[in-house]
Structure formats: structure tokens, C-alpha cells
């Protein structure tokens, strides 16, 4: 008889026992995260959701290498990593575009920093401008664009450097509901095309259910993993997904979990 060992896939991101304390002068340090462990597989879309201040942004910044851990570590493709790297890109709620640069120059910026040749940069920018539907707006400046368009540029800028991992911090939080829905559809399509690993911070239950393979619910500060929910809705998702009874059931379930934590936390405070 032969025995076969099936190799366990190496996670794209491994959060291994991460605790984070912030020093606060003259006071006890603030514990933002407490022993958080989580594996994210290549091509997986994972959302982080939880009460305000539970450490979602902190966890994202630690994964990106922008913030050190107090204890525990981050492994990217199985290697301990404590600094930003070309395989990760971040998309921010505030868009974080350079106001003195045009759409084209904003998207091109990360490519020039990474040493991509000028001729090649032009082609890549054109591809991502089309992907996010901003043809004709390449020479506009950020303040000449709507919020939704600015976030499309933020997304294109992150995608243009072709990261394996996309870290998104409430990217659609500043947008109106209709624009948000459209960008969720865009992101679903882009994710289907490229199958990047995505960690997506949101406060919006429907957004988390619509986009995710798994939803990580975090507890109030200090942030711990309260529960992980598998989203078993078929892909690709479309506007019809939002009317699927399973969508409504999952969204209601996430809300129940969040509500009970917020009420409990408020009652203690
Ligand atoms: N630089 C810092 N110095 C001190 N405390 C900080 C710092 N950054 C964050 N914190 C604290 O750490 C905790 C977690 O903050 P974080 O921004 O990660 O939470 P969050 O879940 O992203 O919040 P929100 O949902 O409101 O955006 C909060 O109590 C916050 O006040």
C-alpha cells in the first residue's frame, strides 16, 4: 500500500498570533489586536468587519508592513515579512491620489517607482484606464473627478503594479450608495479576471457578503477573531446575487453578530 501525503497549500498571507499595542504617552498602552491568527489563501477574497476601533485598519497596515507587530508575525507566501513589498498594494478610503498629477500620472507613479520602463508604463496605464472605464479622463486632475472616479483611479493605481495581494481599507466608504454598488460590481469583475488575494475592510454587511469568500468578524477592542463566515453564494456575483435569499440570510446573520457585540459593548461602557 502506498501512502500519499497531500501538501498543504502555502497561504498567500498568514497572520500568526499577532498582538499590537500602541504606546500612548502618560497612559497604559492601547491594545488594538490580541493574538490574531488567520490564513488567507491565494486568490481568496476575505473581508474584515467589526465594531469601530476593533483594529481592522491596524491589521491591514501590519499585513502591508507599514506597522510593526508587538508580538506575532506576518508571513507572505510562507516567508516572514515585516516591511512593504511589491507583491502587496493598498487602496485607501481617502483615495490618496497625488493632486498635482493627472489620472495617467497617478496610475503611472507606482510603475516608475518600481523601475518599469517608460514605453511599457504607457501600455500598462492604458490597459488599466480601460479596465476601470476612465477612457477620456486620462489628463484630468483628481479634483476634476467625482469621488467614484477618484476611487477608480486609486484602484487602477494599485492594480497597475500587478500585486498578488490587494489590501483595501474601506475603499468605497466615502461614496454614495449607487456608486458603491457599481464599484463593487467592477471589483468583482476585476477579481474574477486576476484572482488576487484580497483583504477588504468594510463596515457594510451587504458589501462584505457580495464580495467575499469569507467574512472575518472581529470583536470590540482589543480586536480578536470572533467568527469566520463562509460565503457560499455562487460566483460570478451580479446584481441578481443581492436578491438571492442566501445573500439576505447571510447579511442578516452578520448584522445580528455585529449588533449583539455593539449592544454588549455599549452596555459595558
Ligand atoms: N497610532 C495610534 N496610536 C495610538 N492608538 C492608536 C493608533 N492607531 C490606532 N489606535 C487605536 O487602536 C485601536 C484600533 O484602531 P483601528 O484604526 O485599527 O480600528 P478600526 O477597526 O480600523 O476602526 P474604524 O472601524 O473606526 O476605522 C483604536 O482604539 C485606535 O484608537
Automatic annotation (TrEMBL):
Residues 13-245 form the ABC transporter domain. Pfam families: ABC_tran (PF00005). InterPro entries: AAA+_ATPase (IPR003593), ABC_transporter-like_ATP-bd (IPR003439), ABC_transporter-like_CS (IPR017871), ABC_transporter_ATP-bind (IPR050166), P-loop_NTPase (IPR027417). SUPFAM superfamilies: P-loop containing nucleoside triphosphate hydrolases. Its EC number is 7.6.2.9. It comes from the Bacteria. Gene3D superfamilies: P-loop containing nucleotide triphosphate hydrolases. Keywords: ATP-binding, Nucleotide-binding, Transport. CDD domains: ABC_NrtD_SsuB_transporters. The keyword 4Fe-4S does not apply. GO terms for molecular function: ABC-type quaternary ammonium compound transporting activity; ATP binding; ATP hydrolysis activity. This is ABC-type quaternary amine transporter. It comes from Compostimonas suwonensis.
